[in-house]
Design brief:
single chain; alpha/beta; Rossmann fold; two-stranded antiparallel ribbon; 11 strands; 17% strand; globular
């Protein structure tokens, strides 16, 4: 993977967190994504969240699969552990790492193609097993690395940059996460930093499977008027798509609107995206209401954002399996080898 290192020189007056670190200490390499890509805004939000929480980078593990979204861990937390897995298999690799060492903070970054297509089964099982992770999907509705084909999250009736219409029903990953047993489910927009940063922080604090679906417009392939995943369509609906041979430099699309309000976002190409933020009296502990809220807004061509569902008392995978409190990678040989007598007891229990 090609990447450009950032200079290590820092201004001496940069603000520092409780660990004495600056935001620069949480950055990664220079992004090679298209200028204006929503994925870079998500990377910036992760950097801000970890900096504000004063998380030591060496206690964080970031994992990804394949796709534009899965390139982004290169662009944040350069001092943390990192693993770029094969297409759609990030949840399984992360689960194995978590079972071996529960003391790390796990951040899984994926895309709509990586999680809703080839990795759909992996995604579903990670949610139902309660793996203690923050699972972020950077959702743009297209396959950016293979020139803009519809992904499984592309809305029915949406058109691509060539005007071809999608006739497949969309997979709503937030609804699926709730149905599969995730105990923290949220949705946000890449350009809404004021909402996204605290959602990431809350997800990291949450014990169990935490999922955040982030609508992240693709400025190259899915940012036109008839797209439902572009900057404008999410600000008023959420949409965007283009097909230029030369991709011009774009400014990041930002939004700021109050709880309970609906904001129309205009994307770079003039398309519109409607975002509706959860009201202050919304109850995120009601599982059924969360699913209904998502579906009700979908009927209005709106994207509901905020903390959609949370179960603060749910157990995680280690609780369900009854593992020891010590990370498995720190157990001694004496603890790992039970001896002939104990092994016979274990074998008898399975007969």
């Amino acid at each position: 993977m090609t990447y450009i290192r950032k200079p290590k020189i820092q201004h001496p007056r940069l603000s520092r967190n409780a660990l004495g670190l600056t935001r620069r200490d949480y950055e990664g390499a220079v992004s090679t994504l298209c200028a204006g890509c929503g994925h870079d805004s998500i990377s910036a939000a992760i950097i801000e969240a970890c900096y504000e929480m004063s998380l030591p980078a060496h206690r964080i593990a970031k994992l990804s699969g394949i796709g534009c979204s899965s390139k982004t861990p290169t662009y944040f937390l350069s001092r943390s552990h990192g693993f770029n897995s094969v297409h759609g298999r990030m949840p399984a690799v992360l689960t194995g790492a978590y079972m071996a060492n529960r003391d790390l903070v796990y951040i899984g970054v994926s895309g709509d193609g990586d999680s809703a297509s080839i990795g759909l089964g992996q995604f579903a099982h990670a949610m139902r097993r309660g793996v203690n992770m923050t699972y972020i999907v950077e959702n743009n509705g297209v396959y950016g690395l293979t020139k803009g084909q519809f992904s499984a999250t592309a809305d029915y009736g949406a058109k691509n940059k060539r005007g071809v219409q999608n006739f497949d029903e969309a997979i709503d990953l937030a609804t699926l996460a709730i149905q599969m047993g995730a105990t923290f489910v949220a949705r946000s927009f890449s350009g809404d930093k004021a909402q996204l940063v605290p959602l990431i922080q809350a997800a990291i604090h949450h014990r169990g499977a935490a999922f955040i679906d982030v609508v992240s417009p693709c400025v190259t392939f899915n940012n036109h008027r008839e797209s439902t995943k572009g900057f404008d369509y999410v600000r008023a609906h959420n949409a965007a798509v283009n097909r230029p041979d030369l991709i011009p430099v774009r400014e990041e699309v930002r939004v700021s609107y109050p709880e309970g309000a609906t904001e129309t976002v205009e994307l770079h190409d003039g398309s519109l995206l409607q975002l509706t933020k959860c009201a202050a009296d919304y109850n995120p502990r009601d599982r059924t209401r969360a699913i209904n809220a998502i579906q009700e807004r979908q009927r209005l061509n709106q994207v509901v954002t905020g903390l959609l569902y949370i179960d603060p008392d749910a157990p995680d995978l280690h609780d369900e399996m009854g593992t020891v409190s010590c990370p498995l990678n720190q157990l001694s040989d004496a603890e790992l080898i039970p001896g002939r007598a104990q092994l016979e007891v274990i074998n008898q229990a399975h007969r």
